[in-house]
Amino acid sequence: MELLKKEKELLETILDKNPNIIVVIENDEIIKTNAKFNHFFSRESISCIELFQIMFLANQIAKTKTLHSTKEWISFLVQDSKNEKIITIFKDHHPYYFIISIDVIGENIYLLTLQDITQIKEEQSVNVKQSKMKSMGEMLNNIAHQWRQPLSM
């Protein structure tokens, strides 16, 4: 009994130390979440359908798919699991970006993982802006150079 308790505590620690949001779904119910999930969603209790609605409400997937039940969402994700999906979840009017994956771990038991890539997306956005500014600076420099020394014809 003591060994079983230690193994359960170890499993809880592993789940809670994981940097990803982890959700275990059985049938239509969330049966386990980790600390990252509880922190991000600011609550421990949420229904499956609420979770899927939050995840896909602001995303292109929701605009192209009309899925009304947990089973339909899970079926859609499992069938299309080879394609990496990046979703946006808005929290406090700020976008957070996640790579979503789902794995079948038993009969009607699924492991849903959300990997936070917000920092990577923000860095990409900054790099694109810096690249545009650099190109514009080079173009303005060339124009100024031509202005000072026009091409002779």
Which second-level CATH architecture of the largest domain applies?
Answer: 2-Layer Sandwich
Q: What string gives the helices and strands in order?
A: HEEHHHHEEEH
The CATH class of the largest domain:
Alpha Beta
Q: Overall mean pLDDT score?
A: 82
Structural class: alpha+beta
CATH superfamily of the largest domain: PAS domain
The number of domains: 2
Regions with little confidence, pLDDT below 50 for 5+ residues:
none
**Silhouette:** elongated
The major sheet is characterized as: 5 strands, antiparallel
Structure notes:
Helix content is 51%, strand content 25%. It is built from six helices and five strands; from the N terminus they run αββααααβββα. A five-stranded antiparallel beta sheet has the order 2-1-5-4-3.
